[in-house]
Specification:
The chain is flat. It has four domains: 118 residues, PAS domain (Beta-Lactamase, 2-Layer Sandwich), CATH 3.30.450; 104 residues, 2-Layer Sandwich (Beta-Lactamase), CATH 3.30.450; 72 residues; 163 residues, Heat Shock Protein 90. The chain contains 15 helices and 18 strands. The protein is α+β, with helices and mostly antiparallel strands and 586 residues long. Helix 9 packs antiparallel against helix 10 and helix 9 packs across helix 12.
């Protein structure tokens, strides 16, 4: 192998390395930025959820002092067998609890036996139960306060128990306990994006927006923890099957990338102030990864373009040097070589002219294909409308003829704007956008393809809510996209029994969704991934160029929207257009 071969090989390897490095750098920086934004949102969500949960727990701190100042409660601790006194305390606790908003409020004696409770008249009341084994009872009798999460012995309902000792001097005469229903927090969590789970001091999930995660530890429990669970019974009948929780990467800011059930999540956690728990939020990092992949492709492509530009510049300089060297050689050569130089120069110019001519023909062919496809729809519409006008004129339906003529005028105007619309492939249109009625655009498109629908026996369903739904767009562009999608659906419904074409539109916040679907065979899997690439088509040779969807997608993007495609589960294809809605008229 020659030295030139090895030099070219080294240059190729170096260029590939530069492209790979640019792709890697673009991917890494974009992914870091995306994950940072996701972390910031997760931290904000954690602050709100933890503040709300801590507030639910702190609002019961006033209850011990309130009950100690009530004469009936200390009297009941002195004479626990007095039924009248117990009944009075039961009713008093019920009234206090109705105001406090806890799940249950009850009084225990020094032995941990429940004497009175706010739910004395309901099944599953704690009255008479020996709860001395519960940690919150032991803690309160020893240190004055206690807390514990667990499933109720009698009610079988989970809750957070707060206990406060009732003292006479230095001796604890009994205690008051409050059961807080923290499961209500799950309802508010489900309104926020992502998933959230609350983990207790043993690493067991006690609250979660996903029911299949509850009462399962992030890691297997050790012997001490298993002994505590058997003794205190905090999780009821929970299996405590460890979760498949695998930390794959630790990120700055205390967040982690974890794998759970073979799905990767961004896990952010924060400890509560009022309880020994941690709140964890799970967010899907896939959108950030998708953006990073696009950034990698863009960075690699940009580096490749730069390298190609550099190669072109280098080759040009080499050509200039060679030309100068040739000129110097020609000056020194014999006069007999001048004729040869002239002949060769003429040949080179002829070859250059042929190359330029070939390039022009190729560009002309591409432009012609796109122009023919774009002209086909309005020309077909003109033919349909003119034929219809002749029939209506024969029937003396002059008003309908005027309507058709107005539509013909609008279609001619659209043809006049064709060249300016085609600029959207390279430049964003400067034409101002205006409110466009979705219902009117659908009706215009239906009028264009109406004859084909009738000839093929295709039933069409239209559902637009609200009827006055409008988008901020260009009327001709919206109609062109709808006509193209409807024609594609008509072609796809060939040989389909009971063919149906459905158009639905609705408002989603500041955007409108237009859904064009059919009950045909759907889009082939090998085409679906490349559907919006030029010259990709499922039609037979000569039936289509594969440019219609490319043009439609470009038009929608020029209007600030998106065009997507998918197969319906019940069969058939669905094309979905998202466009900004027009501002409401004041």
């Amino acid at each position: 192998m020659t030295k030139r071969f090895w030099r070219n090989l080294v240059r190729a390897v170096a260029a590939a390395a530069l492209v790979a490095a640019a792709s890697f750098t673009g991917h890494r920086l974009t992914l870091q930025a995306g994950l940072a934004r996701l972390q910031e949102a997760a931290v904000h969500r954690l602050d709100m959820l933890i503040s709300a949960l801590d507030a639910d727990l702190v609002r019961f701190d006033y209850l011990p002092a309130l009950l100690e100042m009530t004469p009936a409660v200390p009297a009941l601790l002195d004479t626990p067998t007095d039924r009248a006194l117990r009944d009075a305390v039961n009713r008093y606790l019920n009234g206090v609890n109705s105001t406090a908003g806890a799940e249950m409020l009850y009084v225990l004696d020094a032995d941990g036996v429940s004497l009175a409770a706010s739910d004395w008249d309901k099944p599953g009341t704690t009255i008479g139960q020996d709860l001395s084994f519960r940690p919150y009872v032991v803690q309160a009798m020893q240190s004055g306060r206690g807390s514990f999460y667990g499933v109720g012995i009698t009610s079988r309902r989970p809750g957070y128990y707060l206990s406060y000792a009732l003292r006479r001097g230095e001796r604890a005469r009994g205690l008051v306990a409050v059961k807080v229903d923290i499961e209500r927090a799950e309802q508010s969590w489900r309104k926020a994006p992502g998933d959230a789970l609350l983990v207790d001091e043993r690493g067991v999930v006690i609250l979660s927006t996903r029911e299949n995660l509850k009462y399962r530890p992030l890691e297997p429990l050790n012997a001490t923890q298993r002994s505590e669970v058997e003794r205190f019974r905090p999780y009821g009948d929970g299996t405590l099957q460890p979760l498949p929780w695998i930390v794959t990467n630790a990120l700055p800011g205390g967040t982690q990338l974890v794998a759970l059930d073979h799905v990767t999540y961004l896990a952010s956690s924060r400890a509560l102030e009022r309880a020994p728990w941690r709140l964890i939020t799970l967010d899907d990092p896939e959108p950030a990864r998708a953006v990073a992949r696009y950034a990698a492709i863009t960075s690699g492509s940009a580096m490749a373009v730069l390298l190609l530009a550099g190669l072109s510049w280098s080759q040009r300089r080499r050509a200039v040097r060679q030309k100068l060297a040739s000129q110097a050689a020609l000056q020194a050569a014999h006069d007999n070589l001048e004729s040869t130089v002239v002949a060769r120069t003429a040949q080179l110019r002829a070859a250059q002219g042929e190359l330029v001519h070939s390039g022009k023909l190729a560009a002309l062919g591409q432009m012609s294909a796109g122009m023919v496809h774009e002209l086909n729809q309005p020309l077909t519409a003109l033919r349909t409308l003119s034929d219809s006008a002749a029939i209506l004129l024969d029937q003396d339906r002059r008003e309908d003829v005027r309507v058709n003529l107005r539509r013909i005028t609008g279609t001619v105007d659209r043809l006049g704007r064709l060249t300016s619309r085609l600029k959207t492939f390279a430049h964003k249109s400067d034409a101002p956008l205006a409110p466009v009625s979705v219902a009117r655009s659908v009706a215009d498109a239906q009028a264009v393809v109406g004859a084909e629908l009738k000839d093929r026996g295709i039933r069409m369903e239209v559902d637009i809510r609200p009827v006055a739904l409008s988008v901020l767009a260009e009327e001709s562009a919206v109609a062109s996209v709808l006509i193209n999608l409807m024609r594609n659906a008509i072609d796809a419904l060939h040989d389909t029994p009971q063919p149906t074409l459905t158009i639905r539109a609705w408002r989603q916040g500041e955007h409108a969704t237009i859904d064009v679907s059919d009950n045909g065979p759907g889009i082939r899997a090998d085409i679906l991934a490349r559907l919006f690439e030029p010259f990709v088509t499922s039609k037979s040779a000569g039936a289509g160029l594969g440019l219609g969807l490319v043009i439609s997608a470009q038009l929608v993007r020029a209007l600030g929207g998106t065009l997507g495609a998918a197969n319906r589960e019940e069969g058939g294809a669905r094309f979905t257009i998202h466009l900004p809605t027009a501002p409401a008229k004041e």
